[in-house]
């Protein structure tokens, strides 16, 4: 089957769809959803067959999450019908969808860290199997049947990201889901964890369950999906079979351009230090070291990539650099000046840009309009201020510029940030931070949740600023992004820098192994202060730092 051209909007039907039966598990027909000033979905058609993984792809703001919220009963369509196992249904709430076997695992996990796996799973569903022995037996049965490896008595705060995701999958299976919606499930996983997740999905398929897989990672989509439906600007563009398409063709269907690569062609690293971190140590409760003897220097024109499984000290390092936490020992210098007594505002005014890892908690005021979000963290800087006063007209004009330059899909700058898709929220933040020509940029997962077109634009912005002398600390779960953009790579494990890697020779698989504590032939022990090398032993490192809070609200994909 020849792939559709970017301009076509008809549905492409595979010559041999991988359906397991004649009646689809889910069928959405003519779904249309309007919001004030925006048509989020227009005449959407989607057919998901029983016992298959069906991928849903599209740009930020294409309407994917709106469509899934309609299927999950969180929103009602203005037009169109929903059928489950051949029967037309109407959902007034997620409870209605759950009763018909629809379950959703959001990108941001909905787990209580202070509860056990069992307590999280049964919470709100106590009537199904009680809260004791029967519930435990059911959890063990489901875990073994689908190869999830979940321990009912484990405390969630002690689990890694991949294990937390399995708990979320178990939650929906426990409630009887036969069709699972997974929203960006690989966004925070290393390659080995992605492979394990895909093994879990194959187990689900083998048992006759269906999975709707939402992702911007087109290579993963092609490897795990049986069918792929592409949505662009709220309309179905086509449905294709992985064996008959490529990442390049999928990107063209999504955004009308080729899939970008994050390769950095030339080095722009200078010998001028911008940020210097020396023997930084940060203690948590009980005197446990969250960061232990962290030392590095980032020069003008250099991107230092920091690789690590989430929860190994990245969040604490960011907090120490931006001034949200103060280290117990060690020094921080920006352009030769000590930041020991600087609060966050002064650090920002002296040229530290900050793209936070959690845009909802640290990057935006969701109930505030876009122009107010544009001035966050930069209230005292031009064009937002004039002397002691805010310059609202200038700030609003600059917000319009950011919206245009960064292709933020919005009906206007007066809408609340909550009304934007997650990817468009991210583009607004990146535009805001890059607009003040920072000397040092903390970029934590800068392209998480954005489509391939926006991803390319953000990479280009980082490259251009790097050429002009920007120093960047890049933290990302996208290992191709880390390897492609970084001049230097360091690995953080249990609060320590345990290895250095050469981006020119390291592979994502080797980097992923190092992140989990395994050795690699392309990694070296970090150089200790004073120039002597000390071998790092990840196996003897202290207990891991606190895990990143994954309890934020799920993102909207389109309004």
Q: Compute the gyration radius: what is it?
A: 24 Å
Give the overall silhouette.
Answer: globular
> How many domain units?
3
**Structural class per helix/strand content?**
alpha/beta
Top CATH class of the largest domain? Alpha Beta
What is the count of DSSP helices, taking H or I runs of 4+ residues? 18
Poorly predicted residue ranges: 1-21, 529-559
- Total strands: the figure is 23
Query: In percent, how helical is the residue content?
Result: 25-40%
Q: What strand line-up does the widest sheet have?
A: 16-19-20-13-21-22-23
Q: The CATH topology of the largest domain is what?
A: Rossmann fold
Compute the separation of the termini in Å.
33 Å
Spell out the CATH superfamily of the largest domain: P-loop containing nucleotide triphosphate hydrolases
Q: Main sheet, how many strands, which sense, barrel?
A: 7 strands, mixed
Assigned CATH architecture of the largest domain = 3-Layer(aba) Sandwich
Strand content: 15-25%
Average pLDDT, rounded to a whole number, is 83
Folded structure, characterized:
- With 559 residues, the chain is of the alpha/beta class.
- It folds into three domains: 1-101 and 179-184 and 216-251, P-loop containing nucleotide triphosphate hydrolases (Rossmann fold); 266-351 and 438-547, Rossmann fold (3-Layer(aba) Sandwich), CATH 3.40.50; 366-437, no CATH class.
- The chain is 30% helix and 23% strand.
- The protein contains 18 helices and 23 strands.
Itemize the secondary structure elements and their pairings.
Elements: E1 26-35, E2 38-48, E3 53-58, H1 64-71, E4 79-84, E5 87-89, H2 94-99, E6 102-105, H3 117-122, H4 126-129, H5 133-145, H6 161-174, E7 179-183, H7 191-206, E8 210-214, H8 218-224, E9 227-232, E10 235-240, H9 247-255, E11 273-283, E12 289-299, E13 303-307, H10 314-322, E14 329-334, E15 337-338, H11 344-349, E16 352-355, H12 359-362, H13 370-375, E17 385-386, E18 389-390, H14 392-405, H15 422-434, E19 440-444, H16 452-467, E20 471-475, H17 479-485, E21 488-493, E22 496-501, H18 508-515, E23 523-524
Parallel strand pairs: 3-8, 3-9, 6-7, 7-8, 13-20, 13-21, 16-19, 19-20
Antiparallel strand pairs: 1-2, 1-4, 4-5, 9-10, 11-12, 11-14, 14-15, 17-18, 21-22, 22-23
Helix pairs in contact: 14-15, 15-16
